[in-house]
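Supplementary Data S3. Sequence and structure tokens for construct A.
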Amino acid sequence: MRTRRAFLQSAVLAASALPARATKTYATSRPPLADRKFTSDAVEAKIQAAKKRIADPELAWMFENCFPNTLDTTVRTGELDGKPDSFVITGDIDAMWLRDSAAQVWPYLSLAKDDARLKTMLAGVVNRQARSVRIDPYANAFNFGATGSEWSGDHTRMKAELHERKWEIDSLCYTVRLAHGYWKATGDTSCFDPAWQQSAALILKTFREQQRKHDRGPYSFQRTTANPSDSLPQGGYGNPARPCGMIHSAFRPSDDACIFPFLIPSNLFAVVSLEQLAEIHTSALSGPAFAAACRELADEVRQGIAKWATGSHGRHGEIYAFEADGYGNRLFMDDGNAPSLLSLPYLGCCAIDDPLYQRTRAFVLSDDNPYFYRGTAGEGLGGPHSGLDMIWPLGIITRALTTRDEKEIAACLSILKATHAGTGFMHESFFRNDPARFTRKWFAWANTLFGELILQVLDVHPALLSKI
């Protein structure tokens, strides 16, 4: 089992793996102003203010590159049906994932009150996501229009508006999180119009269908592929599970197929989302019956979690499993994407100091987790999606976001600084012994989340970045 001391030592190795750059001048890697997709005065002011508080010039440069990357490169704004409309691509794939787009714009919410254009753009994302849910609540990724995609031959109910139709609980959870967060940040309830309420009803309906209490529900998916994690067994319905109150997920946030259908981090996230829907319909709308239905389902999911989501691990005691099936089978692992077991406090699913979470976290960040890797470049969570020995910066960032230990945060920042391969941007993953071997040079979610981390450190640990 890895220790904190070993982690700090690996961070030192990572920091020393690249040549010293103390005298280097860091010119921005952002697109020229005329080529940026969207600009925000509030975001630009935040970048300049934050940079002044970051002692390390390389970290300051990385922040300047990463934090606005979603706005600089991925946003298309306009108007649709008389309402703001914003389409946000994931980066090097010209499609909008519900999960990614919600996470990409999340760090800008706190600045919306200071920038009317930014507020309108964010409202446009809420509107576009709600519209996407109405097109198909089971889809994870959408085209700008009815253009079709390379996955149009998948064996499922594809539509021309869909880029991909992998059912992932978190797609709907992130949609709720963004709408709720926008409302809380701005006080604006105009997005919660009848069309949005129809989307909310579809979210509740879909969650109910995928409890699979009486039948397998309307969703199935298979793909003609040599990669088994891109398709579902058992006629496209996934492996069997016993109804227990939890919600079936066909795929993980990595877009890989689940082994056991009850994906625990996503079910915990769903509880939070259902409570947020209930709050919206209680406080911002007059919908007590719908709010009660959301809370009733949240309670059912909680009961299933309480009974089946944890298990006894030989080294770590009672911890959360990553997946379960309601028959007593559990999969102990974690993945670098989010929602993950590691990310639970970040998503509001539990407190950082919750004992069950802390035991689970110790497992996740140890050699007992088959997808935790360490090497000469650093250490961190990976997952099946990018292959063995590939560490995800998302997992390193999430680790720093879910600890109060300044030494652990500093060590995470050290690894991130040492593994961007000279680009100044985050990537999907990098090889544990060579950060120059990475996947996806343009991955806006990881970039923006890195910016969110820097701002959280400046807010919660204000002296840390002045010392590093």
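Construct B, processed identically:
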Amino acid sequence: MTTFVQLHMLVSYPPSNLNRDDLGRPKTAMMGGALRIRVSSQSLKRAWRMSPVFDAGLAGHRGVRTKEMGTNIFQSFTTGVPLSALLRGEQGSTPAFAPVDETKAREWSRAIATVFGKLKEAKKGADGAKQADPLEIEQLAHFSPEEIAAIEELVARAATEKSAPTEDELKGLFRSHTAADIAMFGRMLAANPKYNTEAAVQVAHAITVHASAVEDDFFTAVDDLNRGEEDVGAGHMGETEFAAGLFYLYVCIDRDLLLENLQGDEALAKAAVASLLEAAATISPTGKQNSFGSRAYASYILAEKGSRQPRSLSVAFLAPVTDREDMLGAAIARFEETRANMEKVYGPCCDEWRAVNARAGEGTLADLTTFVTE
């Protein structure tokens, strides 16, 4: 039977604009007949994946998601600097091999990049002449550390021997990998679907447990050198949108699929689950943080383990929470009541559970981490 780890969190954000829509406003959703503020799954996963928590907990086991790998490969060919050094931003690294001339470098870079996606079409310049063939692919591709190392090895071999990558070498670039972020959040490679990875972690869009409206902030900026001799007004005027709210977040981890995606590496699977829990509990999306400073930790976390079919408990907040005196306390009580009633109807929905309640000072993140990784 598949083992699932489910995380339910309540996180309160003060005025913020963590995740914007196409008009620059906080994203929203209608639920239970009330407008809610929403933070998308994509925004949350991006913040977690790029966080110091993942840096520390999953060092050496994180991929790179980009359209521009071909550009970096080309730069590696023409400078002799290893690809991994370029991706780390070490532009001045000591060359590892003699550079290749630009014509061959572009041709070979395009051959390698094409393995991971369709290349963009060449554009025409202002004079109508066709520009150089682009090195970027059309869709984002997520490259594992093992695949980056294989590309780097192929670049060095081709540059050293001054011969183009062979068909077999190109086919061999896809490798069994231990990229924890790919294992958790999956990847799709339209050019080579057989190397797709089914995500082992499902992340719901976070929504406020109460009705919430988007508000407008009118602001001005003052010119420091304006002495008020001619123009005493502001140097700049603008408007930005924001909202505040207590959010419910749900995460489901397929523990068996995660282990399979990581080639059976049990220690790495535990590190991935631990990093995910810590990031979800402590890392905020980066949107408008400099303007609002809206970083927040989860105030309540319930973790469940078991082989029963997973379920979100967002239904607890289908009717908006309206308690203005203690909204967090009311939300926790509503959540726990809904969970208890679900278990009366369906039976135990998990084998074990643990909770952390920062409002009451109960439990620790360390203990919860031990629980979810056992």
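The chain has a mean pLDDT of 93. The chain has 13 helices and eleven strands.
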